[in-house]
Design goal:
By secondary structure, the protein is an alpha/beta fold. It has helices at 15-30, 35-61, 65-73, 100-104, 222-226, 232-244, 249-258, 265-275, 277-292, 349-357, 378-381, 390-400, 407-428, 433-443, 445-459, 469-473, 488-498, 500-503, 517-533, 539-557, 562-571, 573-578, 592-606, 622-631; strands at 204-206, 212-214, 296-311, 317-329, 337-345, 368-371, 385-388. The chain has a five-stranded mixed beta sheet with strand order 5-4-3-6-7, sandwiched between helices. The chain has a two-stranded antiparallel ribbon with strand order 1-2. The radius of gyration is 33 Å and the shape is extended.
Length: 633
């Protein structure tokens, strides 16, 4: 009921009367004497329909009038967040943005790319938020999901009975016709085993003559009945739980037993070897080829254990070896990423990268290699441009001065805060790799050089007495002096100074990450397996586990449904093994024309120097055609 409370007399109106008014208005519009009158009557009819929709929404969701009006008309009074520009400096360091004179340094010239007019301008800091506390809040749903988010749910369609269908007369009022409403979707969640089972109970009859008769399987279940006992979806579930979720075979076996669907640990391992091992090996080999020709390789390793002791390169027996993760970027003109896991026990990450680069095309320039800078990787650094992780450099000073109570701790942490805020600005504004490099050169060089000068004073490599103006330019107090060579600060300073070039290449080479945090996240997959499964049975199982994990994690990193992709690989094993290059996670559901164009793009890219000046590649590339094919279906 709707009432008008501004007048003494209340007007009561129900839904049926409102529908009748709408019908009368439409009828009057057809008989209108002028065009303007017809438009006015149609507008009035639409207003009545809107009022009815508000009434229905009120009854269903019990929302307030304010929320309903906001949903219908929008919220025009909402203030847009402003970019406060505090990414360029931190509190107490107002001149951390490099000026032209500071960039020139002793050379007196600026690199040619800095003269490019397309370099994004530096944003002035917001004086109202000097400490940079004004952060954007994450727009989350507080854990709530709509019914449409349950794409894997079994759908049960409940159809309207005869007499309640749209177009038929309403059984209640017997005046108006029913109209179609949006279907109501209700979710009910139930629990079951990771691998479920169907038990076919087939009734039979027999005769003394030997004849036996069995019930026929319904058409809806014939595909399931005629399939293998362990279907592709069952194998996919075992693989995802074992490697992606790091649930050991024994733990999964216990969960299955609790649900009354036995799945012994030994059976899981055997079925993986039988159905999945060869197909995953073939796809992993294509990953290795693409990774070998990538523009950027990030790598790290951690400990893995074998059940049996093995002889190491140091002629000692141990069950502890190396598990390596190598992440490859820019192997095609898209944003695809590959992560390779190698569990070769005796090989650390540097050895794995050396072997991988043997597959690199001869015409390709040397790649970018980013790591945490261990001396063990020195040999592989000869095959590429060495990059180091700034997070490791910053972490050392934070461990030495956790609360930044000293000038050295405060200054270096503040400089890194500025550098990372600059990088966040580049990401938030979707700058290209080339523009990001230019932006860091203009706005991060001062911070890098300030850290360098402080560490050079601490190690005695620079004396302030030779050039007192340096202290004023970089805001370094006069009491900062050289420390003893065996002091922890001297060790930290030498770590940074030795790797200064490798740490600062973000300002001179496009596409260089500031750190190896993304590699550390990939290493967590190895650690999860080690924590839950403790060890691999032997070296062979360790190696094929690395290949399986490579395919699963690569699929996951590229935001492709892992379960659906793995199920496809197992269901089409022979086809994938025969031509694995056409069934990569980002290609398996594309048509032949798309796949052909993709590999033409990769071949053209392999003929183009990876470190060419026109990076990040010519604008007229195959990727434009790929996007066109994808948009056209």
């Amino acid at each position: 009921m709707f009432t008008n409370k501004n007048k003494k007399d209340e007007i009561e109106l129900d839904v049926n009367e409102a529908l009748a008014i709408k019908d009368r208005l439409l009828l009057m519009a057809k008989k209108a004497s002028s065009e303007q009158e017809r438009k006015d009557l149609l507008m009035a009819s639409s207003l009545v329909e809107t009022l009815l929709a508000v009434f229905v929404a009120w009854g269903k969701s019990k929302k307030t009038v304010k929320k309903i009006l906001k949903k219908i008309f929008g919220n025009n009074s909402e203030k847009q967040p402003k970019d406060n520009g505090d990414h360029l400096q931190s509190a107490g360091h107002s001149n951390l943005v490099a000026s032209e004179a500071e960039i020139l340094g002793n050379s007196g010239t600026i690199p040619s790319f800095i003269n490019d007019t397309n370099v994004p301008p530096a944003v002035e800091p917001n004086s109202n938020d000097p400490k940079g506390k004004g952060k954007k809040k994450r727009a989350g749903g507080n854990g709530r999901n709509s019914a449409d988010d349950y794409i894997g749910a079994n759908e049960i369609l409940l159809k309207l009975e005869d007499g309640f269908l749209p177009g038929q007369k309403c059984p209640d009022c017997i005046k108006h016709f029913l109209y179609n409403l949006e279907a109501l979707k209700t979710i009910r969640l139930v629990g079951h085993a990771p691998v479920t089972a169907f038990k076919f109970i087939i009734e039979r009859s027999g005769c003394v003559c030997g004849a036996v008769y069995a019930a026929k399987v319904p058409l809806d279940f014939q595909d399931l009945y005629n399939a293998d006992k362990y279907g592709p979806s069952a194998i996919a579930s075992i693989l995802v739980y074992k490697y992606l979720m790091a649930v050991s075979f024994g733990m999964l076996s216990k969960v299955q037993s609790m649900h009354g669907v036995p799945l012994p640990a030994s059976t899981q391992a055997n079925k993986i070897k039988e159905y999945a091992l060869d197909v995953f090996k073939s796809v992993a080999q294509v990953f290795r080829y693409l990774s070998a020709n990538a523009y950027l390789l990030g790598f790290d390793d951690t400990i893995i254990r074998l059940m049996e002791k093995r002889l190491t390169t140091k002629n000692t027996e141990t069950n502890r070896g190396h598990g390596t993760a190598v992440l490859a970027n820019h192997f095609d003109d898209q944003d695809n990423v590959i992560v390779l896991y190698d569990f070769d026990f005796n090989k650390h990450a540097g050895d794995v990268v050396i072997d991988l680069l043997k597959l690199r095309e001869k015409d390709k320039d040397i790649p970018l290699l980013i790591s945490d800078g261990l001396n063990a990787y020195d040999e592989c650094k000869k095959d590429g441009i060495d990059l180091n992780c700034n997070t490791h450099a910053r972490r050392k000073i934070v461990e030495e001065d956790p609360n930044q109570k000293t000038f050295v701790g405060q200054a270096i942490v503040a400089c890194y805060q500025t550098i990372y805020k600059n990088d966040r600005y580049c990401k938030d504004n979707n700058l290209s790799d080339l523009d990001r490099m230019k932006y860091h050169y203009l706005n991060s060089q001062y911070s890098f050089e300030r850290i360098k000068i402080i560490f050079e004073i601490l190690t005695g490599k620079f004396s302030p007495s030779k050039d007192p103006s340096i202290l004023a330019n970089f805001k370094i107090p006069s009491y900062v002096k050289q420390v003893e060579p065996n002091d922890d600060l001297a060790t930290i300073a030498n770590y940074f100074l030795i790797r200064y070039t490798a740490l600062t290449r973000v300002m001179f080479i496009p596409g260089v990450p500031l750190d190896t945090n993304y590699v550390e996240r990939a290493i967590k997959a190895i650690i999860r397996i080690r924590v839950n499964s403790l060890f691999f049975e032997n070296l062979e199982s360790a190696k094929y586990s690395g290949e399986i994990l490579s395919v699963l994690e690569t699929t996951n990193l590229n935001k492709i449904n892992v379960f659906i992709y793995v199920e496809f690989l197992i269901a089409n094993r022979e086809k994938v093994i025969k031509n694995p290059r056409n069934y990569l996670p980002w290609l398996y559901d594309k048509d032949d024309a798309y796949k052909k164009l993709y590999w033409e793009m990769v071949a053209a890219k392999n003929r183009r120097p990876a470190n060419s000046p026109e990076y990040p590649f010519s604008e007229q590339t195959h990727s434009d055609k790929l996007v066109g094919l994808q948009e056209n279906g």
